[in-house]
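Incident log, structure service

09:12 report received: a user says their structure output differs between two submissions of the same chain.
09:20 pulled the input from the user's history:
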Amino acid sequence: MLKKFGLAAGALLLAAGLTGCGSGEAPAPGTTAAEAADPGVGHVHGLGVDPATGKVYVAGHFGLFTVEAGKLVRVGDRDADHMGFTVAGPGTFYASGHPSAEDVAAGQPPHLGLIRSADAGATWDQVALAGKADFHALQVAGARVYGYDAQTGQVWRGDGGALTAEARLDLLDLAAGAGEPGTVYATTPDGVKVSTDAGRTFRPLKGAPLLSFLDVTDGGGLIGVAPDGRVQVTERGGGAWTARGRLPMQAVAFTAVSADRLLAASMDGSVYESTDGGATFATLYRP
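09:34 re-ran on a clean worker, output below:
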């Protein structure tokens, strides 16, 4: 899969797709033993904002965190690997990934399948494919959820808790919106592809630049980030793409909270926010 990308794109795909991560941050002077033992976020896998509270969430290799005054605060006591993290609504999140090393050693299967939280990440319930699927990308479109199992290359469509297997392809990110839940986009080594039959088949999206991450905005437009960190946008219905600003580093996670508010993370764990549609970015958190 990496061979089809250029060097920058291949490096990004490798960084974003691997589940192995660093060991977290070095403890600061004056920290307690418990704080020093906390592994930190590790590699960032997902970002989101809870519309109920406005809090920014960072999902990583060692758990889920909120950004509080420039610091990361752990949510709950889980240090499981949170892959595919996405916000579905107020206090409602989806994720996948892997249990903690301790849970795996105790006999828990190494893949979480699809999990859901209804209390802003404090607790999680199993939805489907426990022990079987490893969703590296999840996307909510109204009442529907799309997922990409990185083990098999299978795209799954979820409706009312039941998951249906659809197309197989190599991809990094999925994008879909509540306005057209049957239309789903995928960023692939061959460029952006689109499905208009709820994931059954995909075709190239004409005129789209090579993108690593992509989202559908509230108005039905598309906004994404290229392997070089450049933000690219197009209006509803497609057409010409416009380049906006550029992230200071390659993105390993990206989400469009709205057409104006964007969140992104880089390989070193820094989290960035734009409030002008990607023209400029400010640092929310830096390790």
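09:41 both user submissions now match this output. Likely a transient worker issue. Closing.
09:42 reviewer note: The first strand starts at residue 44 and ends at 49. Residues 272 and 283 are 5 Å apart (CA to CA).
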